Automatic annotation (TrEMBL):
UniProtKB keywords: Initiation factor, Protein biosynthesis
Lineage top rank: taxon: Eukaryota
GO molecular function: translation initiation factor activity
Species this protein is from: Plakobranchus ocellatus
Name of this protein: Eukaryotic translation initiation factor 3 subunit f
Length: 112
C-alpha cells in the first residue's frame, strides 16, 4: 500500500482508505488468494503422496485433543474457498490431478 500511495502521489496525511487507493490504482488485493492457492497445491501434493502428512491433514491419528478453542483446519478453510462441497468431495478430487488444478484455477479466478 505504501508503494501505491507513493506512485499515485497521495500524501500520508491524506485520509484515504486502502480500498480507495486500490480502486484508484485499479488493483485488487491478491495476497490472500495467493496464499490459498499455494495451500491448495501443497494439499494436493500431500494427499496424493499418502504418507504421514496425509494422516495429519485429514485428522486420522490417535491422541488426546488439547483444551481450548479448536484450531481452524486447512481442509475446512480450503473447502470454503473452493466453493460448495464437502471435505470428502475435495479428497476425491485431489486424486485426479487435472481436476484438482481446474478447481484451484477456477477458485483463484473468482477471487473468493
Amino acid at each position: 500500500m505504501w508503494f501505491l500511495r507513493r506512485m499515485l502521489r497521495i500524501p500520508w496525511t491524506a485520509k484515504k482508505t486502502n480500498e480507495r487507493v486500490l480502486n484508484e490504482a485499479n488493483k485488487k488485493r491478491s495476497l490472500g488468494r495467493t496464499i490459498r492457492k499455494r495451500q491448495a497445491t501443497f494439499l494436493g501434493h500431500v494427499m496424493r503422496r499418502g504418507k504421514l502428512e496425509h494422516l495429519v491433514t485429514t485428522g486420522k491419528f490417535e491422541g488426546k485433543r488439547s483444551r481450548g478453542r479448536h484450531r481452524e483446519k486447512i481442509m475446512d478453510g480450503l473447502a470454503t474457498w473452493l466453493g460448495p462441497g464437502k471435505v470428502s468431495d475435495i479428497l476425491g478430487a485431489v486424486k485426479d490431478r487435472d481436476l484438482w488444478r481446474d478447481m484451484i484455477a477456477n477458485a483463484y479466478k473468482q477471487g473468493t
